[in-house]
Design goal:
- The protein is mainly alpha-helical and 155 residues long.
- It has one domain: Ferritin, core subunit, four-helix bundle (Ferritin).
- It is built from five helices and no strands.
- The longest helix has 31 residues.
- Pfam families: Ferritin.
- This is DNA starvation/stationary phase protection protein.
- One of its GO terms (molecular function) is ferric iron binding.
């Protein structure tokens, strides 16, 4: 059945392509955050362990919302490690860094997702895609606030 939501097919595809990048960054950050939650050590263990759990729980909800928006636009959402690795801008951590380095990498990751969302925003805006623009605005707010709070721990 054809999709008739007031956006042309090419506009929907272009927005979905951008959202796929936001999804890949978000999912990669989710995995990294979960890794750090499991493996953090040191004097900040308790607070970071709990904080990272809050963050990955929020990200788990976010990736579902982003993927569902891609589907509502009539495209398939990427859903494999390979696809995410090709689309993400976030560097994978293969080791277990010290707690302060984990925090630094989390700041970097949240800022990356915010930048990617900001890059996609004009495409959604140009297409008159208010639901995607709203979703991107919400994601930018969450990631910018989280980056600020994490950055404050390093000062």
């Amino acid at each position: 059945m054809d999709i008739d939501i007031g956006m042309k097919q090419d506009e929907r595809s272009e927005v979905a392509k951008g959202l796929a990048r936001v999804l890949a960054d978000s999912y990669t950050l989710y995995i990294k955050t979960h890794n750090f939650h499991w493996n953090v050590t040191g004097p900040m263990f308790n607070s970071l362990h709990a904080m990272f759990e809050e963050h990955y729980t929020e990200l788990a909800t976010a990736v579902d919302e982003i993927a569902e928006r891609i589907r509502a636009l009539g495209e398939f959402a990427p859903g494999s490690y390979k696809a995410f690795a090709e689309l993400t801008s976030i560097k994978e951590e293969t080791g277990v860094p010290e707690a302060k380095e984990m925090i630094r990498q989390m700041v970097e990751g949240h800022e990356t997702v915010a930048r990617t969302a900001r890059e996609v925003f004009p495409t959604a805006e140009k297409a008159g895609d208010e639901p995607t623009a709203d979703l991107l605005t919400q994601r930018m707010q969450v990631h910018e606030k989280t980056a600020w709070m994490l950055r404050s721990m390093l000062e």
